[in-house]
Structures are given as structure tokens and as C-alpha cells.
Amino acid sequence: MKKQKTFILMLLLSAAVVSCQKQFLDTKPSKSLLVPETLADFRALLDNLSVFNRSPGLTEVADGDFYTTDAGWKTWTNNQERTSYLWQADIFGVEKGFDWNAAYQQVFYANVVLDGLTQNKIPASADRDAVEGTALFSRGWAFYHLLQMFGPAYQPQAAATALGIPIRLDPDVTKLVPRSSLSAGYGQVLADLGRARRLLPSTTSAKSRPGTVTALAMLARIHLAMGNYAQAGAYADSALQLNGKLLDYNNLSTTAARPFPQSLPNGNDEVVYHDAMASYSFNAATSVFYCDSVLYRSYNSNDLRKVLLFKDNGLGKINFKGSYTGSSLLFAGLANDELYLIRAECNARNGQAAAALADLNNLLVKRWKKGTFVPYTGTDAQSILMLILAERRKEMVGRNMRWYDLKRLNLNQSTAVTLIRTLNGAAYTLEPGSPRYTYPITPDELLANPLVQNDR
């Protein structure tokens, strides 16, 4: 009984902390069953798509791939969308930070599962391993996104002293946890993903559940963010050896409103892990959110991405339609195209020009109209790297990865980007390395936990 009361108190506290609007477990019909105790309970927690398989979305409005008009900007319902668009110092004002709260809700659920598996002495089995591995992956996934949004770009020489995020490893939300170092934060993500890789099954019943390839893909992504190119390339290669499928865009309808097959449960062969970007008014009402004209013009007329990812609104502006979820939700998960690009980038950075071009060409031949793509050739690794980075932007547009990429690319002058936009007659600029690439800790969190605020 004491254990049940403790769990119920924790659940109520969690609801208050993360502003959760629903009961702890939507599928449970009785309050007496709210306490998770069995393996089935823990699996049900992790299968809750209103909690998991959702990622931050606010930085998508700031990354320069899309823009709006003066009138469109005024229609956005949250002030944090408008301030993010203009890269202002104060992002949240008095508003709650949805992305922060949603990610820590995932962390809390994962910790409840990990703690519960031990406390309830769930016996060893393949199913138990899968549940534990899913919880570890989900916690690592949430920490990764929090570090990308609320921590500075990873630099090995500064990571031990740079501030990261609070690393919560148990479900007691009454504990005040300070911000860890950036190094400790990334270390925890790697530890969680490493353990998850050993526990997760090779196949799953739906792409909303992580498997072995999912963990490998995420390890590739996190090592890329850290600049560990040998490791990133190796993990991408391991994942692609197990599943290297790519969609042939020649087989898709260019006139369809949603050209791509739905990723759930298993409809898109290229998708490794289904995840949808958090909905904001800017990405829910895409009619006033337009592709950057320079980016759009960079697609060749024979490049099918130009008509499968975008649509002309008939008024001279281009809207995005090409989500890999196959729905109105924007894809923010893991897919094989990203893995080919990671392996290609890492090979280019390590001087392996032929291998880098092989991956890039294998991807692009599936993107262009049949018979029109001429494979790239060359031996200069730096030129090939710049080509790969340009194609990465074009391939992964609309997935909220551009902001994360800009943070790491801005560490090197040769790949740094200055963002410029105009609104209401005023020009706004975001310089490479600006502290405004690191979002401020949300005000509601500071009220509950006196953390050190980021310098903006």
C-alpha cells in the first residue's frame, strides 16, 4: 500500500510539473489500476503515443529553411513561436515551455518503468529486455533533444565545464536536480543508448517501438553531433548493414497531397523509427509557412523532391507537404536516408572520397527522375563534404534537424552559416556561434527548480 501511495503521489506531482492534461495511463479504465506493476503495465506506458514518439518542434521556426509573411507571423498563437522566429533573447516570456515539459515527461515515464522493473522484481525474459531497452532508448532520446535545444554545441575541450541539462535518473520528481555538465549529459545519452542497443529486439511490431537498428541509428546521430566522425560512421554503417532500404521516389505520386506512405504501423520501408514533431501553430497551419526561396531553387527540375516535398500555393509561394509520417504531422524520427548521409559525411571528413560519393549517389539516384541523374565524381574531400552537407539540408528539410546541424556546423568557419530574415520592415540576423542558438531554460521550470539560466 505504501508503494502504491508513493507511486500515485509521484504521478500527481508529475502531472503538475509537466502540465500533463491526461490521466497517467489513458488505457487504464479504473483509478485502482493506475499503479504500474506488471510487464504489461510498463509496456502500455511506453506505447502511449500521446507521450512518446513526440519531439521538440519550436526550433523548426528558427532554422531558416522556412519563412512567413508579416500577416502570417501575427496569426501564430504562441508568443514563443514569434520570438523564436526572430531569434529574440527572451523566448518564453510568461509562457510554459512545451518542448522542455514534454521531454521531461518522457524522462519521467521512462524512469517509472526502469524503477518499476526492479522494484516489482520482473523476471528476466526477452519481453522484459525489450521493455527495459525501450525505456532506456526513450530516456536517451529525450535527453538528446533537450541537450540540442537547451545546451550549447558540443565541443570536447569545453564540454566538461559547459552547462548541460538536469539529468533525472529516478522517478521522484520532488528532488531538485541541478544542471549537469554538457559532457555528463552526452555521456548519459550514450550510456542509455548503449544499454538499449544490447536489450532491444532485432524486429518490432510497429515503427513506434525502437529496435536494434533504431539504437544504432541514434548512436550515429549523437556521435555526429559530438564530432566523433569515426564512431558516427561506424554506427551508421552497422545500422545500414541490417536495413539499408530506400524509397524510390519514382514510385510515388507527385500530385498526391500526402505522397509518402504512413510510417505507422509499418508503411514506410525507409523509416527506422516513427516520431512526430510537436505541433505549433506555425507547423500546423503550413499555409502561412513557406519554403525558403533559395533552398527551393536549389532542387534540380529533375529532382523529384521538388514536387514530392513541396507544393506551389499558386501565389508564388511554396508550402511543405512531404512528411515521412504520411500525415499532417511532421516527421522527426529516424530514417535510412539520414544514415546514408551520416556515413557519407563521415567518410568525406575522414578523406574517403569514393565511399562518400557512393553513398550520396546511391541516395540521389532514388530521388531523381529515372534516367536523369548523373552520378557525382571527384576526389577533393572538402568539396565533396560541402556537396553532402547541401544535400543533407535538401533531404532532411522539415524534420527539425537543421537547427541542430547549424549548431555543429557553425563551429567551423568553412561550414558556418549566417541567418538573415526580414519582418515588418526590420532586418534580423543570427550570427554563427551566437548564444541565441541555445534556448533559455523555461520560466515555469525556473520557478520549480532554481537552475542557472543560459546566457542569451
Automatic annotation (TrEMBL):
Pfam families: SusD-like_3, SusD_RagB. The keyword Signal applies. InterPro entries: SusD-like_N, SusD_RagB_dom, TPR-like_helical_dom_sf. The keyword Cell wall biogenesis/degradation does not apply. It is found in: Cell outer membrane. Residues 24-224 form the SusD-like N-terminal domain. Transmembrane segments: none annotated. Belongs to the SusD family. This is RagB/SusD family nutrient uptake outer membrane protein. The lineage of its organism: Bacteria, Pseudomonadati, Bacteroidota, Sphingobacteriia, Sphingobacteriales.
